[in-house]
Amino acid sequence: MANTESERVHCLIIGSGPAGYTAAVYAARANMKPVLYQGIQPGGQLTITTEVENYPGYPDGVQGPEMMVDFEKQAARMGADIRYGLATKVDFSQQPFKVWIDEEKLIEADAVIIATGASAKWLGLESEQRLNGYGVSACAVCDGFFFRGKEVAIVGAGDTAAEEALYLSKLCTTVHMLIRRGEMRASKVMQERVQKAANIKIYWNSEADEVVGENKVEALRIRNNKTNDTQTIPVSGFFVAIGHEPNSAIFKEWIDMDEAGYIKTIPGSSKTNIEGVFAAGDVQDKIYRQAVTAAGSGCMAALDAERYLSAKGIV
């Protein structure tokens, strides 16, 4: 890395979902001259979402990718410097903080906002990926609304899966719930609620074999992993609720995280354990995981970064 090209910036934003772009809007308006690197998936998880109906300000709904283009345009109009590139290594041992982009360019930053998001875990079926956004979803709260009065299936055995199954049971006629083992991992109270719900049908020791459908989900073939028997259930939606993984691996050495890798922030703020490094969006939020909450935390991070830089006399 001896010949690494380097650049000094006041505020570096890593990630480009609702949190990163909102942070960029606020940071640019505060004259922090933010530089934002979009990462491996410019626009984040919303770029694999089709219809978004629950974000304020879009009365007719909006396509996820289109919404992220709007966010990006607004940040750019405010003066944010938006670039392609992936943060591959960081050194937060001293200020200015060092962040390497694509292993070749070095950015030295007075403040860093981490907005790298989280990625849904998938089963790895070809049909699941092909129909993602066409009836296959990793977020019941985002997409359940589109399946009102229809039958759906959900896979997962933890608290999130139980919560999402209950949410779907209020909208859908039947929720077919696949549990890979003979028991659930969810807390006792969640298990009881699921088992009491009249329209949640539990399939123990069962796995999804294939999502059936050409251009949209029409059915789900499931396999009992004890007997190897398969059956096909007609459903319009298939929800994968086997967890999310925060995109936080490169910060592990420096930033405090919980056991799942979500960055810990000081309650009521976006501050991490390192002064001058802030976190926003799904990389630090495993509870809400919504575009609107991510955007709100991006605003918090930019305001926190502005106060920090201002106190230092930098901006």
Relative helix content: 10-25%
Average residue-wise pLDDT: 95
Succession of helices and strands: EHEEEHEEEEEHEHEHEHEEEEEEEH
CATH homologous superfamily of the largest domain - what is it?
Answer: FAD/NAD(P)-binding domain
The CATH C-level name of the largest domain is Alpha Beta
- Strand content is 25-35%
Which stretches are poorly predicted, pLDDT < 50 over at least 5 residues? none
Euclidean distance between termini CA atoms: 30 Å
CATH architecture grouping of the largest domain: 3-Layer(bba) Sandwich
Taken from the alpha-carbon principal axes, the silhouette is: elongated
* Rg over alpha carbons: 21 Å
How many strands, which pairing sense, and closed or not: the largest β-sheet?
7 strands, mixed
Structural class: alpha/beta
Question: How many distinct helices?
Answer: 7
Molecular structure report:
With 315 residues, this protein is an alpha/beta fold. The chain contains 7 helices and 19 strands. The chain folds into 2 domains: 5-119 and 244-311, FAD/NAD(P)-binding domain; 122-240, FAD/NAD(P)-binding domain, CATH 3.50.50.60. Strands 1, 2, 5, 6, 7, 8 and 19 form a 7-stranded mixed β-sheet that branches. The protein has a 5-stranded parallel β-sheet with strand order 10-17-11-12-13. Strand 12 (174-178), helix 6 (188-196) and strand 13 form a beta-alpha-beta unit. Helix 1 (18-29) runs parallel beside helix 2, helix 1 runs parallel beside helix 7 and helix 5 runs parallel beside helix 6 (188-196).
